[in-house]
C-alpha cells in the first residue's frame, strides 16, 4: 500500500510539472531543464515512463551502434548501451552542457564504458554520415525548433536500412501526435516500419529509404 501511494504521488508530481511546462512552452520550445533530470533518475520514473517497454519496442540488438538525440541524464541511453553489448556502442547528443555532464557521471556510476556523450545541436552534422544502425528520440522531437532539419540529419546519420525510432508520451509538454510524427518523418525520407502502443504512449519505428 505504501509503495502504491508513492507511485501515485510521483505520477501526480510528474503530470503537474508536465502541465506547467506545457503552458510555459506555448510560445517556444523549451528543453527539459537540467535541474529536473533528477526526477528521471529513479525506479519510479522508469516504471511511470515505461523505460523497458520503450527499449523493447525499439528492438536494440548486440553489436549495434545507436544514437539517442536528447538523452538527458541517460534514463534510456544507459540501459540501451548495455543492450547493444557485446560489440555495440551508444552515443548521446544533447544541447545542454549540464545534461551532458550528468549523463557522463551516471554512465560512470552504472559502469557503462561503451557510451559517448556529445554536446551539440540535432540540426547540425555532429556525427559521421551513415554511421548508426539506430537513431532514437523519446519525448524530444517537440523540443527541437527545426524538427524537419533534425530528422534530415538523422536520415544522414543512419546506415542504409537503418531505423529511426520515435517515442511520445502524453502529457509531455512537447508531445507530438502519431499523425504529426509520421508526416515529419516521411517528409525526411523515412518509411513507417511498425507502430507500438496507443496514442498516449507510442513508439513509431521508421526505415531509412
Description:
With 209 residues, this protein is of the alpha/beta class. Helices cover 37% and strands 25% of the residues. The protein has helices at 2-24, 43-48, 51-58, 77-83, 97-109, 147-157, 178-187; strands spanning 65-69, 89-94, 115-119, 132-138, 158-169, 190-198, 201-208. It has a seven-stranded mixed beta sheet with strand order 3-2-1-4-5-7-6, with helices on both faces. α4 (77-83) links the parallel β1 (65-69) and β2 (89-94). It is globular, with a radius of gyration of 16 Å. The chain starts with a helix and ends with a strand. The mean pLDDT is 87.
Produce a short descriptive summary.
The chain is of the alpha/beta class and 209 residues long. Helix content is 37%, strand content 25%.
Give me some keywords for this one.
209 residues, alpha/beta, Rossmann fold, 7-stranded mixed beta sheet
Which secondary structure elements does this structure contain, and how are they paired or packed?
Blueprint: H1 2-24, H2 43-48, H3 51-58, E1 65-69, H4 77-83, E2 89-94, H5 97-109, E3 115-119, E4 132-138, H6 147-157, E5 158-169, H7 178-187, E6 190-198, E7 201-208
Parallel strand pairs: 1-2, 1-4, 2-3, 4-5
Antiparallel strand pairs: 5-7, 6-7
